[in-house]
């Protein structure tokens, strides 16, 4: 699995008809394959602008850019609307949900629902904010394969990341996700 770059998309950017052209131009300029870029759009924003999202994000998806539903499970957004968006390539379960795992049956239900929706649609499901081995075990038991958080690597200067990556010898750390 290749490392990816994730970028948050603001609500005003989501409705900007020139966004796809600018991102395409920037990717070409930087020499980054579109498949290595993931755009993260908050669940509530995506639900509110589902029609605009299909147009703007659809053009980006045709380039090969991934679209991740960020903060999944934190709003009362219509899952049916999000589930029908053809451009979505993944769901990112919010850290507030992950923090409640093992304490709250609702958190487990949200994660299980995300995994079920993800499998039905062929989406990546990412858990963000993973901070303990116990959370990893619960998430794996619920079917989550991609995780990110301080348990894997805390924020650090670039040189530390370079060293960490070279120590992997080409093998990604268990559960490490660049998404």
Could you describe the 3D structure shown?
The chain is α/β, with parallel strands linked by helices and 179 residues long. It has a single domain, classed as EAL domain (TIM Barrel). The chain contains 9 helices and 6 strands; from the N terminus they run βααβααβαβααβαβα. α8 links the parallel β5 and β6. The longest helix has 17 residues, at 105-121. It is globular and about 45 Å long. Mean pLDDT is 82; it is low at 172-179.
Briefly say what this structure is.
It is built from nine helices and six strands, in the order βααβααβαβααβαβα. The chain is of the alpha/beta class and 179 residues long.
> Which fold name is given in CATH as the topology?
TIM Barrel
Helix tally?
Answer: 9
CATH architecture: Alpha-Beta Barrel
The helicity comes to 40-55%
Strand percent estimate: 15-25%
Record the SSE blueprint.
Elements: E1 5-8, H1 11-14, H2 19-30, E2 37-42, H3 43-48, H4 50-63, E3 66-72, H5 79-83, E4 90-93, H6 95-99, H7 105-121, E5 124-128, H8 133-141, E6 146-148, H9 158-167
Parallel strand pairs: 1-2, 2-3, 3-4, 4-5, 5-6
Helix pairs in contact: 2-4
Highlighted features:
alpha/beta; single chain; 179 residues; six-stranded parallel sheet; TIM Barrel; 16% strand
């Amino acid at each position: 699995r290749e490392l990816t770059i994730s970028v948050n998309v603001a609500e005003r950017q989501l409705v900007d008809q020139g966004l796809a052209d600018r991102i395409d131009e920037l990717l070409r300029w930087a020499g980054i394959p579109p498949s290595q870029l993931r755009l993260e759009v908050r669940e509530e924003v995506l639900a509110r602008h589902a029609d605009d999202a299909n147009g703007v994000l659809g053009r980006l998806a045709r380039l090969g850019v991934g679209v991740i539903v960020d903060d999944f499970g934190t709003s009362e957004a219509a899952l049916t609307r999000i589930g029908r968006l053809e451009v979505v390539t993944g769901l990112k379960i919010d850290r507030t949900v992950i923090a409640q795992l093992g304490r709250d049956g609702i958190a487990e239900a949200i994660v299980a629902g995300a995994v079920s929706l993800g499998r039905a649609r062929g989406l990546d499901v990412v858990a963000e904010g993973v901070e303990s081995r116990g959370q990893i075990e619960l998430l794996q038991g619920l079917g989550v394969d991609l995780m990110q958080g301080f348990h894997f690597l805390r924020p650090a200067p670039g040189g530390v990341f370079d060293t960490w990556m070279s120590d992997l010898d080409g093998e990604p750390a268990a559960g490490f996700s660049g998404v």
